[in-house]
Specification:
2 copies of one chain form a homodimer. Chain A has helices at residues 16-27, 34-44, 48-54, 73-77, 82-100, 110-113, 129-140, 147-166, 182-185, 187-201, and strands at residues 5-10, 31-32, 103-106, 120-126, 178-181. In chain A, 54% of the residues lie in helices and 11% in strands. The interface between A and B is medium-sized, with 22 and 22 residues. Strand 5 (178-181) of chain A pairs antiparallel with strand 5 (178-181) of chain B.
Amino acid sequence: MEKKIITISREFGSGGRTIGRKVAEALGIPFYDKELVDQIAMESGFAPKFVEEHGEHSPSGSLFSYAFAPQGVPGIMNGLSTADFLWNIQCNVILQLADKGPCVIVGRNADYILKDRPDALHVYVFADTPYRAERIVRLYGDSEKTPEQRLAEKDKRRRVNYQHYTGRTWGQAQNYDICLDTGVLGIEQCTDIVVNIIKNSQE
Amino acid sequence: MEKKIITISREFGSGGRTIGRKVAEALGIPFYDKELVDQIAMESGFAPKFVEEHGEHSPSGSLFSYAFAPQGVPGIMNGLSTADFLWNIQCNVILQLADKGPCVIVGRNADYILKDRPDALHVYVFADTPYRAERIVRLYGDSEKTPEQRLAEKDKRRRVNYQHYTGRTWGQAQNYDICLDTGVLGIEQCTDIVVNIIKNSQE
């Protein structure tokens, strides 16, 4: 089956976003990450920063989150919580992006949202904590929390969000078509593997 | 890090054993599967058929299983259940095989037993139920149970055994270095991916 859409789910700091960008470049197809966030933000009327922070995180259910919601929310949101409203918009945006043509989509539970598209290849990227800790400090700098705390918090938020909206277990191999440990295999090699799978499927 | 040992864990019917054999052939290194079972059997004094049936399955704890145990068992087994005794022997055999040199080891929880060897590449192979059902009927023929029942039973026994002896979750991506869906990627391509990873690590 020819594969045209690539979804990349990733542990924080594993290099999944970098692999996504490199795969898109190698194949000459669009790469959706921040662009996707912006599009979701525009469609929802939420502030882009709010979407970026909440799009893959736990459904909070807190009243506070409504403070960031667009004007006229009660009507638009149709009784949904902010998180559920955002989830619905994310699903629609991702389904539309995939319909537009070949692309790479990083994060946002796209593996689940596009699970019924036989032309989608679902990739999961992970690595052990020391590898990711070194990488996030190098790329994003230090913060008041230890790198291990930052990884644990972000991983937990992604895991809870994924479980809540998909009913699946985050990181379970059967949810994806291929899972890659970047700490062992390296980002370049993981990129090559994914690019080759796509090219082979199109021959 | 140069990789010399390949462990392959697999869902029943996914083609993991075939990939293991092909990888071993391509690299010109030994392949341990039934041979491993035989060696375990010889060392333990258990009948090969008993080892084959119980080596990856649930720890039964049933008294019945002692009927298959070697003579003089109470002394040899040192108070362990048959399953625990077999597990200890499996661990020793697998550690010794890896010490002997490059090889492919299929099943027997070798990913966990060799988790501390940095020269080991741990591969998990899986596929969806329809792909595996078609495959087991084609390879092993029909039986009184449906293919789906056979898959569910065998998967469950492997999962319970793995969980019991390793404390890990069967099929969780983080237990392995790479996970491959043979139904999507095909056995030939999965073989090539693993062979290339090993070759690249040795350059």
